[in-house]
Amino acid sequence: MEIRKYITLFLIASAFASLVLSCKKDGGDSAIAERPVVVSYLVAGEPITMKVYLQKGILDTAAYGAPVSGLSITLSNGSKQLKLSELTKGVYTSDDLSLVTPNSICSMSFDYNGNTVSAETKVPSLPVNFKASSLEQAVPDPDPLDSVVKTFYPVTFNWTATSGGYYLLVFRNQDSTPLRIGNGFGRHNPYSDMEEYLGQVSSFTTQPMTFMFSGYYDTYLYHINAEYNEILNSSGTSSLNLTNPATNIKNGLGIFTAMSKTSLLFHVYTQ
Amino acid sequence: MVRKLLTSIFLCVLTCSGLQAQQRLLSKVIVNGFYTTSMNFVLDSLMSKYKLKIVYDREQASRVGISERFVEEPINGALKTLCRQADMHYWVDADTTIYIVKSQEDVRLLKKKAALDNVHPEVRSMRVRTETVANSEVIPKVDKAFRLSGRIVDQISGESLPGAVVSVERNNIRATTNADGYFTLANIPSDTCVISTSYVGYIPDRLSLKHVDVSQKMIIGLSVARNSLEEVEIKGKRNDGIMSTDKRKVSVLQISPAKLAELPNLGEKDIMRSFQLMPGVSASNESSSGAYVRGGTPDQNLVLFDGFTVYQVDHLYGFFSAFNSNAVKDVQLFKGGFSAKYGGRLSSVTDITGKEGNQKDWNIGGDLSLLSANIYLESPVMKSGTLLLAARKSYQGPLYNKLFNQFNKTTTTATPNAGPGGGRGFGGATAVSTPSSYFYDLNAKYTVNIGEKDLLSWSIYQGDDDLDNSRDITLPSFLTTSTVSSGPSITDKTTYGNLGSSLKWSRRWNNKLYSNTLASYSTYHSDRNRSNTMSVTNSDGIATEVTSGTIEQNKLQDWSIKSDWEYQASNKLKILFGGYGSAQDVIYKYSQNDTSTLIDQNRKASVVTGYAEAEYSPVEKLQFKGGIRSTFYDQTKRLYYEPRFSGSYLLTDRFTINAATGRFYQFMNRVVREDILSGSKDFWVLANGTTIPVGSADHYIMGFSYETDKYLFDVEGYYKNLNDLTEYSQRTTGNRRSSTLEEHFYNGRGYTSGVEFLAQKKAGKYTGWVSYTMAIARNQFDAYSADYYSANQDARNEFKSVNMYKWNNWTFSATWIYASGKPYTAPVASYTVDNVSGNARTYLTISGKNTERMPAYHRLDLAATLDLIKVDSRKTGSISFSLFNVYNHTNIWYKEYTIYNNQVITSNINYLGLTPNITLSLKWK
Questions:
Q1: Best interface-test mutation with B: which of A11, A185, A238, A255 has the largest number of B CBs within 10 A?
Q2: In chain B, what are the domain boundaries?
Q3: pLDDT tens per residue across span B773-821
Q4: Which of A51, B44, B55, B634 is the most buried (most CB within 10 A)?
Q5: Is residue A24 part of a domain?
Q6: CATH code at A266?
Q7: Does residue A214 share a domain with residue A121?
Q8: Cβ under 8 Å to A: B residues 119-138
């Protein structure tokens, strides 16, 4: 009899524990898929462009999501405020060059689906003392007819880095169809502008494989915010390490960051 | 390869069947005579003629007719012939009495019968050897209460059995043997008592104290339980099974390595895997032998081997545990609320005791499976020492290749634009793949008794994995130039492992005081080299090698000293106390292209710990343990106090209620890398109090158990909260040559909670259990979410059914595991962003961390094991056939997302399908 009592007690306790533990599925934030993607790089001294578009379904084969049209986007640097106008569907611009000035804090906001989408960024100071050890770079032909590769002499770019400043170099070929250097194994990728994320450094030295195409390059040194790198850095590709990419857009995704740049003209030719 | 293997198995069987040497029957009697009568007359005649002590079942023997002539036949040959004709076995006891039985279990029955019939009164105390102990504290045998102390050993090898239970019948006085098999029972009411001993996987024993001199130290020998042809009526609790739980201890599981071969296995008798069949230990992690105990992660489980910490507990991407079961005597898993004696981990403790080796006779044995070969040697050394050597090495047989390919499959489905470790394609060029990978481990233990009281033992363990996927790329001829003298060679090599050694000194100061002092060293290393080397010849004809890639190195060293003391003040009070000191040195380096070192950490830390615990039993039915552990950690310069309490109360003889609580700290963390292909997926870091805080946990456990002679029903509920957890992530930033590696430490908290149900049949032809665990494990890391989410290891429902049936010399087993799917993170959308220079990059958006669930995990494993029993009842080996995942269920390990043609393609990476295995285990004697 006593045992039966204990067993009953035990079953009641177990049932209670089961109830406490019964769980619901984790909901997560399903609204995230509805948030708009904002991409805007504010460069001191350049017109302002901001693209706003939707995310796409995972099986969508389109390169970009549908543009978001008809938004009223306000930009401000604390003292001045302006509204962007929609140039083409989902691309908002302003030719005003006075808003994005070094060291000012720029913010933007617009209403979308009942939420205010906003972001803020600080415009870095202009890079100073940007120079190169040579304005020309001879690149030895990697696939010479006589099979003897000539010596490569690197070029070093220097600038004065501000404390804690992050830098980025972009090489943009001026030719519409740049000429490829060499034509051997592995040289079949189409031309694209080269971006060298440098971090907190004050020099960059070229290497034999830096340039795949010859011609005149606009070489831009950008003084950027650390957020640029954080945001563009990839997240994982497996269910074990998937996280949402970083963003500085509230109620949205993408990037709203300011940068300042200076440039050099640089000539690359096959030796 | 298969043919070679089968030939060797065949040869082994042949060699072994030829082994007829009798080892235990040392009698030199020569038998002559001609018998055509029933067996009982033959045996009677042998007894009277040659003055032998033979015990047998008269009725059984009378049914067997013998027609045999012996000419100058040694007694063992004659017995063998007789037993073969009768389809029986003989068993020689320590005092040379010969038992003629159908199976080993019948020896006990015969002994009992003999005792009852008073035919052989001397049999009654047969299993007890007495040794004179020069100890004045021993209470002489009187009619009032007395003290009894002794040692429980394996009957055949003489090895001590730690954790065996000795109890006085019709009285709740009980004791558990310590690490060297010693026990002391005090206040035994009268000398007419019967004491019973039990140990998991062994035949329990009852012993009348009537003819035993209690002033002497008792040595009680137990035998491994084997097949029983007849149900033997035994009073008292039995446990013939592979797993046991002690109702007076909270959340403790013990398994018998001697019986592991009977469970289905994947290539190896696996200690850590067998725990996964128990309630509370997650079973759906095929890729980790580490124990996920009650929602904890494997790094929250302290693994001790002969007292030293083992940091790498698995082989071959986690499929096998790093411990050779032939070198293991006893394993205990403390699932929570553990004693103040243990510390340094948040969740659980696995305490493994290595085998000492046979004290009586040398032996050699081994296992051969489709995965590895395993050999061991045990031998007495001079008068008082024993030695055990064991080695195991995998070979690239079909099973190894299957497992290896499981990972290479992952590689081929990896994204075309995967980062380091992912991209292995070399379009256009031919990859000459020569993967050569293996693991091995070595165990050595030397134990020596110095006098009556002291025991010294030296144990070494080394285990290593060498995963080599290096290969040369042969460039097509039109691409070779005089400058590139050879194709690039890709080094993809991972080596990792653990080396540990301990020197232990145990001393039994007197019947009340016992100490165990240990100095140990343990080192873990993990080296990874993924680089491409290309030989380039310059215009002067000088060849230089250019290397690019990543080289990673992690090394942990741990020097420890500890001293554990036990003082048995009385049956009611036992005091445990001790100290522990440890110094750790962890190096972690990550370098790129030979030249730039991206991460270079070298952290040293030391801990000093003291603990005290009292086991108090104010009344027979109540047992209470309270203790405190305090640790000084030099990195944070703080003192950490860990109070621990546990207790049990016997409501009735069968019904026990128990509870435990305590606080636990962890000073080092294992970092699990996100890159699944990295071979060794993890490395260890020490807490620094800032980015890596000292983790803490509180356990609250309560349970009930109902135990009869053959059955056990057990329920335990637990709640565990975890604070200051650390997760780690590495991010490479930048591109090509100018990259940096960032380390991110995420800190968070979590809780786990659950109820475990167990119903076990412990004895008989059919043994096994069903268990059900309902559990929840949730974490909250600010880096992922402000809310709690399901932890990666969260498995809500787990059902396990373990069934073993014995038939003659066969054991059939079937295990079925069902577990709710693990949570995972899935993309809900994607978007593409152009960077400043206009290059596009696509990102995946997730709705939340671990919001999705994989389909349920389930599989059925089957095994059949044939024990090879010699005519003198000794087991010389076994052959086991095993099928893993019999109905070939597709269990998903994780999902991989690839962006192709702007779409997100999801591919499943699966666990193993149907995998057969054969294991042959043999020993010389």
A1: A238
A2: 2-104, 129-224, 271-408+428-487+516-923
A3: 999 999 999 888 888 999 988 989 999 999 989 888 888 999 999 999 9
A4: B55
A5: no
A6: 2.60.40
A7: no
A8: none
Phi, psi of B505 (to 5 degrees): -125, 115
Residue at A65 is within a domain: yes
Residues A229, B733: C-beta atoms closer than 8 Å: yes
Q: Are residues A56 and A44 in the same domain?
A: yes
pLDDT at A2: 53
Beta strands B695-707 and B655-666, pairing class: antiparallel
Note the pLDDT tens digit of each residue in A35-54: 999 999 999 888 999 999 99
pLDDT at B123: 35
Q: Which of A253-257, B142-146, B718-722, B827-831 is least confident?
A: B142-146
CA separation for the pair B900, B793 (Å, rounded): 30
Chain centroid to CA B238: how far? 23
Residues 6+ apart with CB under 8 A from A241: A235, B674, B729
Element (H, E) at B409: helix B398-413
How high is the pLDDT of residue B37?
83
- Looking at residue B702, its pLDDT comes to 94
Enter the tokens of residue B499: 């080396």
Is the pTM higher than 0.80?
A: no
Task: Tell me the residue range of the domain where A44 lies.
Answer: 32-125+246-258
Min CA distance, B596 vs chain A (Å)?
Answer: 15
Percentage, residues of chain B above pLDDT 90 = 26
The whole-number pLDDT of residue B878 equals 87
Report the gap between the CA of A99 and the closest CA in chain B (Å).
20
**Using CA atoms, how far apart are residues A256 and A48, in angstroms rounded to an integer?**
11
Top CATH class of B271-408+428-487+516-923 equals mainly beta
* DSSP 8-state class, residue A191: P
- Picking from A18, A28, A62, the nearest residue to B774 by CB comes out as A18
For tokens 């395993």, name the residue. B374
CB contact under 8 A, B830 and A55: yes
pLDDT surpasses 90 at A239: no
Residues 465-524 of B with CB under 8 A from A: 475, 479, 481-483
φ, ψ of residue B273 in degrees (nearest 5)? -65, -35
Choosing among A187, A206, A219, A239, which should be mutated to test the B contact, i.e. which has the most B CBs within 10 A? Answer: A239
The CATH architecture assigned to B2-104 reads: 3-Layer(bab) Sandwich (3.55)
Interface predicted TM-score of the whole assembly (ipTM), two decimals: 0.86
Give the model confidence (pLDDT) of B330-353 as tens digits: 888 999 999 999 999 999 999 998
B348, B234, B337, B238: which is closest to B298 by C-alpha?
B348
C-alpha span between B597 and B595 (Å, rounded): 7
User: Would you call B738 helix, strand, or coil by DSSP?
Assistant: helix
pLDDT score recorded for residue A37: 94
